[in-house]
User: Fold these one by one.
Assistant:
Number 1:
Amino acid sequence: MTEDKAATNAESLAKTLETGAGGSAGACEQASGEADIPADAVMLTGAEIVCECLLREGVDIVFGYPGGAILPTYDALTRYPQLHHVLTRHEQGASHMADGYARATGKVGVAMATSGPGATNLVTGIATAMMDSSPIVCITGQVPTGAIGTDAFQETDVTGITLPITKHNYLVTSIDELAEDIREAFHIARTGRPGPVLVDIPKDIQIQTTEFVYPTEPVTLPGYKPPRRGRADQVEAALELIRESRRPVILAGHGISMANANAELAELCERAQIPVALTLLGKGAISERHPMCVGMMGMHGGAEVNHAIQQADLLIALGMRFDDRVTGNLATYAKGSRKIHVDIDSSEINKNVRVDVGIVGDLREVLRQLLDRVERRPNDAWFDRIAEWRADSELREIVRPADAPRHPAVSEGKLLGAQVIRDLFELTGGNAVTVTDVGQHQMWEAQYYQHERPHSLITSGGLGTMGFGLPAAIGAKMARPDQEVWAIVGDGGFQMTSMELATAVQEKVKVNIAVINNGFLGMVRQWQEFFYEERYNQTPMVNPDFCKLAEAYGIPAIRVTERGQIEDAVNATRAQAGGPILVEFVVEKEEIVFPMVPAGADLDDMIRRPTPEEFEQKRRERAAAKATPAETDAEPEPVAPAAVAGTRFGV
Amino acid sequence: MAKHILAALVENRPGVLARVSNLFRRRSFNIDSLSVGRTQRENLSRMTIVMESDAAEADRLVKNLYKLVDVVHVDHLHNQPSVARDMALVKVKASSENRREVIQLCDIFRARIIDVAAESLVVEITGEEEKLGHFTELVRPFGIVEMVRTGVIAMGRGSHTLKDQGYKPNRGRSSSRRSVL
């Protein structure tokens, strides 16, 4: 039995090798037919069909890495110059670049890899895209059909591995289904709640030839019908709750920008006078300078925003999913409020938070339905209350104009990560597309870089993928070459994918890389400081000289160690043309991201930075405690801010 | 907590059972039984899923099933008049002395004896889960050698039909691999 099977496989492998030479070369003239490619039947290889389909889906860039099982397709790519292939240095980079490309444009990003290790290297990027609903299509080579299941060289069950981290996936089982599978993949990736779709194509199918027919009618999938309008009775119920509310808050998520519902959101909050709180990925849903926008919510959100949510009598959640980083302890989350939840994915409604009204639909459609009827009314008392909370937050602020008095927690001459981001915001006029990695710098970006436009912050929110920043920034810049793009990365995450510097150089991608270097895995260190009694296990990092690293790739680099150098460095970076440039900001090692809701704590139970007054009080107590044991009459010795910092009250 | 019976029409594509069972694992759904088989439509299979849970959990499962592209329609049979059946094959120890007693029990339960051997009988019994439970309890003292159950299959009564949403197979899938497995 086993031998029989082996023999069959050997036969089919031999067949594969024979047919390997049979690839047709007739695709070139077909492909050059521009947008209006006739749907006439032509004989094409599977590999050529892949390229034809990509063109018809509007793909212009493919991020990928070649290898044995995808070689036929790479060979076909030479006959399709309209498809620009970007050679990454690791397949993870390819999936993040496709993701960055997708998030910057809303178009589907494409990553390509070979079977086995090539495909498994895509996995982190696919999971990242899944968590943040980013539309990407991954095309992977697979061992020939007959070898599947035999543990062939570089074989892995990619569709099995990616089952829970893709919106859908395909193992192409016949060349006659290839075009349809790819068409469906793009359709599924970009519609409804977007997400990653993987198409696994055995090598023999790439080599076989068939009549290429590209269906012209729209894709119809019996089990896949993204919702459009919300149910009228639910919209009515939502309007009723809005009418009755006195302390409403809109929670705006990623869904707003993905549904292009930004104008509708602005109109809704203006008309009904409802403050808008943003999730991390919701940044850009509405301008952060808009008077209704109160800022980011959640674990490192504004204290005033979290207070407002906890004290609200109505939450209107739009295209967000009540992630634990946003809600804190669910048992105490916004207990006094009624809740409306609008999402395109019905499984999000009542998943984490029970709501009074759940509306399933496309946000833009649903907001328009609401706008038809929502009433104009003032809400001044509620805004006044939020302003009081904000005034308290401002007292605790450490990022201040150069001429303002320092917060006593900040020693003279210290370069703060938070300050770097604020200055970057001001020097770029808030107009850059910023792409972050994951950690403290990501939260500072969220706190201090105010975004005005959708798709201008690209960050791994759901999965929190370190190593995302640089490749995603390359993808974003290639998608929008007219935009100023900054990769803001920490020294830890940067080193996870810094090999992609070579990709940026090879492609001459003008991406500005800001490395916020504090010599620590800063966010983990912060947790260790707060929750593990300052045992900084495995968080200090011995780093390379980042400027020299950049120079080794032929990338110009600038090191900044003082606040006074930021402006020149940023200006020089912006002026640099022709390729990537890196600025290393050597910042305070033990800076803390405040405020912080400890994981699982109540949303308004935040660890706050002390006010200057509280800080001085603390410092006096410390000094006194230090002086007492000696029982001297001498003045208590001054205690350095750093010593106070060690007691959960650092910068 | 109550018993929920869900019926799902799924496209007969490779891997669809894996997608559904992976969903149970991925989202921590506790499933009592799952049975899958062909329907009168060549391209559609039907799954019957039984779970012990509260209503919210069942609702969550329905929504998550709908997220699978291959799932065409899901019905919560609990919300409508329906019939449900489970089938078991039970191999009962039965010697010449007590065989008559076992046969009597089978008659009462309208179970069929489909195999007789010197020391045992194989009994086929169909009915609601509860009936099968009673039967197995009663024959247990004789000694159950082995038993297998199909899991519940169910459908709505009369006009309560599982809608196929006007399902049309949008293309011919390669027949060689047409399998829900």
Note: Chain B has a mean pLDDT of 90.
Number 2:
Amino acid sequence: MAGTLAEKVWDAHLVRRGSDGAPDLLYIDLHLLHEVTSPQAFEGLRLAGRGLRRPDLTIATEDHNTPTLDIDLPIADLTSRTQIDTLRNNAREFGVRIHSLGDADQGIVHQVGPQLGLTQPGLTVVCGDSHTSTHGAFGALAFGIGTSEVEHVMATQTLPLAPFKTMAINVDGALPPGATSKDIILAIIAKIGTGGGQGYVLEYRGEAIRKLSMEARMTICNMSIEAGARAGLIAPDETTFEYLKGRPHAPEGADWDAALEYWKTLRTDDDAVFDTEVHLSASDLEPFVTWGTNPGQGLPLSANVPVPAEIADEGERVTAEHAIEYMGLTAGQPLREIAIDTVFIGSCTNGRIEDLRSVAKVLQGRRKAETLRVLVVPASARVRLQAEAEGLDQIFVDFGAEWRNAGCSMCLGMNPDQLAPGERSASTSNRNFEGRQGKGGRTHLVSPLVAAATAIRGTLSSLEDLDLGDDVDITTFDGTPLAPLDPRVPLQV
Amino acid sequence: MEKFTTHTGVGVPLRRTNVDTDQIIPAVYLKRVTRTGFEDALFAAWRGDESFVLNQPAYSSGSVLVAGPDFGTGSSREHAVWALKDYGFKVVLASRFADIFRGNSGKQGLLAGIVAQEDVELLWKILETNPGTELTVNLVERTVAADDVVVRFEVDDYTRWRLMEGLDDIGLTLQHEEEITTFEATRASWRPKTLPAKHLPPVEIEAARPA
């Protein structure tokens, strides 16, 4: 029977099919852990006298509340330190591999899996973090789970799951210069809404998606959850295989050949039917920014803040009124006039080497606007090392930005990197919820290129607003790979 | 887990859509390593506002939350469910829930019932007209009653059965352990393993310092 990619991966992991309304039981290939959602799960195992079934399919890293400064000193925040110590102790007790602060493979869990080559096509990947959907970029079925489910996977290496519906997101055409994969996903979320993907697994397809690098694909899959979908995936292709080959945990020799043969079957059959299809034209896209307090409240940068009185639906109108008030904006105000206090470049959405390279290319030889601060936080220590080997760190420092150690940082402000009440950010992260980046903080979600242009001008801006001169070729800023992070090349440190 | 058949308690109208889990419990409260004691963190950003519904005496002892659509979106944090439970909520009703939140609720014995939006509006009207009105949630019949007004809610059969029996998920799965072992034996040998660890040679990381 014809099937979609997601259905194929699901069926290949079926331990037992549920009957009488009971969910299916699915095998989990890779379980990623971090310090925030795992302590209560380990505690649960201990209380029930259960063990960790597959330490060899489990890996932990420290990311959510690690500091990005002074990482060689004891963590100042006592509760953060307790949480990290708890993870380290649990890892030791249960025999889990852990990448701690100071280790080259420490970093945001959704960067660590791919960079080690552990994230592969056709796997089921889970983590107690909703942005686990990132790994779907490899054609894996990857989704975030709650702490009870974390405990369930620890004890059984399986999860009971109710079936999902399938949605095709077809992105045709080619991205215009200055637009990126971040703008694609912000436009998708604005189109289908923060609840539009509920109950669905999204499959991103079409010419624009095929042209994207692995890292740009990760940005798209990462934000599937912001459209309400638990997972989003992209069929693996040569771009995927090229990214994986030679990574520490990628198969080798005959195993590579066997894996490749299987991976090539991982695509939606031509005659398969999706429950829903959505179409978007990439060639019409321009840089997108959010104006409100959920990721669906986004508009092209050339637009104005919405006028609530013009919104017909009462619930949406009240939500918009509330968002405009919280954000300290005026209805009808041009988005380009919004002045920014902090530019944050980082997170599991846009903290990868390609993001840093494209930002550095814009910032090179310039100075930041006097009125704002700029934080650049690489997604992992390995990304940081790579950037330093390429001299990007110097470009950021010369620009006036702060170059930090790896972690989730200001994306959710669990560490000291927070917005003050009323402070406004242009952030390459994934959520603009009230208080997300610090109590009272105001977040505008943007692409790395918009973040860079904004850092130069002080107000929300795109490359169009800059006089880039002849030495910068903006036609390469379309999310296509400049040069992928290559794990085989020794770092020049 | 406690068995759940019916519950009667004060209904709380939360007239907001898209209440994400960052609103239910902000990230700064996630640093605890225990499973309980999150009641103060519930809706922390709104609790300082006197007019917020839970700050009104008639609603403060509420145990049935009636919220706008797309409740529980965003972060997967189960702490959102713990915070609601620790505060005293047994039931959340809305016309749409985020998938992860709904799943987390079922596992923790918090009933997430799907009510048609027009019925949510009706319940809001009743609860706002007579603050302190008790709602009776009957899981057997899948109904919510406010005095003589009765509306229906949806919950999937499996979650309903588990809630009514008070069953633990892991225990249920481990009844099929043999099938898990059989499945494991069929997995392709090239599937990745985290152990033994393979990585590039260790490299010194320099600590960034405050500017």
Note: The radius of gyration of chain A is 22 Å.
Number 3:
Amino acid sequence: MKSLADLEKIREEARRMTDLREGKAQTKVIIGMGTCGIAAGARETMKAILDEINKRNLSGIALTPTGCLGLCEQEPIVEVEIPGQPRIIYGKVTPEKARQIVAKHLVNNNIIGEWVIGRK
Amino acid sequence: MAIYRSHVLVCGGTPCLLKGARTIRNLFQQEINRYQMADEIRVVETGCLGPCDEGPVVIIYPEGVMYSRLQPTDIPKIVEHHLYKGRVVEELVYRERKDSKEISSKVPLEGEKYLDRQKRVVLRNCGRINPDLIEEYIANHGYEALGKVLTELRPEQVVEIVTASKLQGRGGAGFPTGLKWSFTAKTQADRKYIVCNADEGEPGTFKDRLIMEGDPHSIIEGMAIAGYAVGAEEGIIYIRGEYHLSIERMARAIRQANEHGLLGKNIFGSGFSFQIEIRSGAGAYICGEETALIESIEGSRGEPRVKPPYPGVAGLWGKPTVVNNVETLANIAPIILNGPEWFRSIGTESSPGTKVFTMLGDINNQGLIEVPMGITLREIVYEVGGGIPGGKGFKMAQTGGTSGGCLPMEFLDMPMDYDTLSKVGSALGSGAMLIIDDTHCIVDVLKSFMKFFCHESCGKCTPCREGNTRLYEILTALSAGTATKAHIQLMKDLARTMQLTALCGLGQSAPNSLITCLRFFADEIEAHLNGKCPTGVCKSLATQFEAV
């Protein structure tokens, strides 16, 4: 360790790993993972989102599965909740669409209107 | 370092490990692999999470849900329902009290009385980071204080900060840490030493063990800062021999700190060098006394030295030596980073900061807690501790381990800090908090305390060697119904003599429990003279009593 800057570098890198435990994640991405969701491919959707988060080195995002929302027809369903904004629910999210949601909605804050099936 | 969507923190403190936490951890990993989620979910073994009696304990993030008392058969259920499908398994979630029906679905760091009343400074990382990964310590501001000290402050400024914080030694005696450092800093010598006293032998105390297991780097950082402040380049951690896991985790942490250049030569390019080595004790209680500990490091029989000179001036190998307790050292980095004013804002004016307690005995939430100094006994027992099981009444609390005094019900509203406790003949000591309910007999309890001291007295000085044995004999006579009124006076005289003349803290504090009980439970003790044991615990008396 040569300087405080070296320490800072390690900390920034390590923080990405432990942020999750601080309860500070601002943005929530929730994926329906009931039997209907899993059958429709929600697992692949989730993997795509996590992969995209990793590729883009994003932090402060809590990615969690949840039970069936009651809109089985629309699965896989992905909800995006950014503080201070309405919750956006996307339907029939394929892995490819999921990657675009990360790029457009999470990174650039542009809602992809044509895939939205609900707002809260 | 990859980002995971979920972290499963499995408590890897000794109490949980004894209850099978390693199997639980392996099962989590196995099940997660089976569901092909290995690159989504990370399983982390941490230090102690606190509720030791509820082990094995697991917390799952980002939800912050705590599961307790886990059995191997529970794991597939948690992995399938919680981790795979996103539904919390309510029936396995940690409940605040055993006898409460309420289930709290989430245990983040708020909302629960058990955690609500706590203030985590020393245990800031315990149960939240993987102690085997230096990166996780660094992620939580680890080694920032050392960096600040080495690059911005002069050694005397560091001593000033610690003095201004009014931090007192957390090993038992409560000696001001800043003052201790200043003695060694002022003494000129070619070599000086920092010794971390991790020979935790007080019955019922396991806080140092769990701090070392849960956050070893906080001790390393504290020692290095102490070294810079007093001008020492060598540190020794003297760890109790039975603490295998503490030794293992400390050793790994020291190795990692060396690899990262946080120990060794020229740290942060400041020219300051510091090395740490580990010595393990052989299981003698007396070696927790600082001069006996130093004798033991030097390879001699662990017997206390005559003081003065104090170790601060002439300690290890005759050189100036700072001996600090594990918990004391773990307080150093936060004090440097947040300032002495911040530290003084916690706790009471004369005893600032927090205190780590190990709660045990007749209490619902047994385990490790950290509370601000000055919290009342009632709050500890009935709020943090969740009360006494089985609806029984509170009889007494022994603070400070077996060498501490016993406090009856009248003291429930007394603030817990160094000053107040020493005024009533007890001590905050090492932080053991033994709660005893009203079904126990005082004479019987005292007997078991004195038996311990008979065993652990090193035999060097007469008051301790003889005194403990005689006290034990008289207590045995009391419980057998053969003691006389003169015995009570004899006990008082013996106890006073030991307090005044024993060579070290062991003999001086051994009669504390007896003296306080003679004062607060005189009626119960004297009843034994008349052949009665009010609780019916002393068997020979109980039968006599019933026969009458």
Note: DSSP finds 23 helices and 13 strands in chain B.
